[in-house]
Amino acid sequence: MMRIMNTLLKQMNKKSYQVFLKNTSKAMEVQEAYLKKCLYDNRWTTFGQDYDFSNIKSIKQFQEQVPITDYEMLEPYIEAHSTRGEKGLVNEPVILFEPSSGSTSGSKLIPYTQGLKDDFMRGIKPWLYNLYASYSNLQYGMTYWSISPVDQDKRRTKSGISIGFEDDAGYFGILENLIFKKLFSVPAQVKFIEDIEDFRYVTMAFLLADEKLGLISVWNPTFLTLLLNQWDLHSKNFIENIRKGNLTPPNGTDLDPEIGKNFHKNPKRANNLRKLNKTQARGDFFKSIWPNLSIVSCWTHSHSENDAMELNKRLKGIHIQGKGLLATEGLISIPLLDRHRKLHHVISYRSHFFEFIEIDSESMEATPNVYLMNQLEKGRIYSILMTTRGGLYRYRLYDLVEVVDFYRDLPCIRFVGKEANVVDFYGEKLNEVHVKRVLQDIEEVRGFYFLAPCNALNGFRYCLFIEKTEDVEAKFTEIAKKIEEGLCKNYHYAYARKLKQLEPLCIYVMENGCMEGYYQHISQRKNMKLGDIKYMVLNNIVDFEKKINGYFA
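Above: the chain's sequence. Below: its structure in token form.
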């Protein structure tokens, strides 16, 4: 049954993959046709009438007539959908709103239509086929697509529209969902476990019990790392639970009966886990217990690069494939392996209409120049604009990407960081891209770390939060000096230091559980799913030292 389901899933996506590759040489024709249909379908919406969609006949006219937008500009139109059920942005019904943290606003509600979901699938289906065609072992394996805890009470807008997908499978269509449910290692009811430690424990118990696990797909690599850490904490309990067929989460959550029904006793598996735990090296353990696990899909670019490297140490022998760039608002790029098994993150040109603002590589500031997909140059950095069937028009994501290559006439891009991630309390205007470059150039700054503001005895300062290691403890003063020198290359930061608006940078040494504390704190502050949180090298939250165990150096 498992092989049949996986084969069916692969074949269902074959045509989308073939169409995607067939039309790469005509990508701009596809882009223009997408834009014109989108404008035509939504010409009688409030936004469409405000910007006279009916009279737009070309891409150039569209760029002249419709301004670059962001969430703040579109928010009144979104509220027309969410509070009054009016057609502010799209003529098609809004089936749900997906929450997202904002770059310039605190939180956002992004409208989802069936058309937008279909456009996501125009990129996801070619990726899935390519994945299954490239890794033949996947046809014999089960899968885990990240599930994040959700509120027990489903939220709705004033107009009655649902808020939020319950898990990653929400992006897929009805048929794909039916197939995936037969292939999921972890039952969907697990997402309703509110206690985060018990949620992780139960999730990991199901994964450990499944010796046929073949594919893991998560967003943030640390989401998986924190799951794997459960084995280090509770290995004996896991073995006993699998032996007896019961679940005993550490904090005693009363589990849904459906969860228990899906967890079966397996003495043979329990004995095998115990044996392998004694004989396998730490980095080889998970490959030995999941021999069919071919690939882990997660973020690997920008902020997630170090986390992915740490995850790779735990999963030796298992390939980690970097996800494409997918935002709540839309799908920008997908990973595709060529016949030589080289990975390309190509723009998903069939999903949305894209434009690109050129970014000055020195100042990291936007230029007035806006380009189309066929005008991009290798080595340049751009800020993405997208027009979607979810009602976003020339929408600025504030995501920066670098063009690193071309594949079949399509630009291949790498996520660099957030254009709008600037922390500015006293005019210092620290930009995350600059901060990342400074920290990456310091040899001792490795592992899990980030920069954030904090209160000082005589004012305000920035603090490097870093994991406790021998290298760090031996060179506190030297590290702080190097960071200060790097940050002072930003004129505004140097001026704020000169005026003594900012105290000298300090170092906070984080101890056990620092990564978990970081994600838990952001989850609570921003009301975000744990699996959706992106690790940021530069944060604007002031009170991290109160939430993470450690000490000031």
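The longest strand covers residues 395-407.
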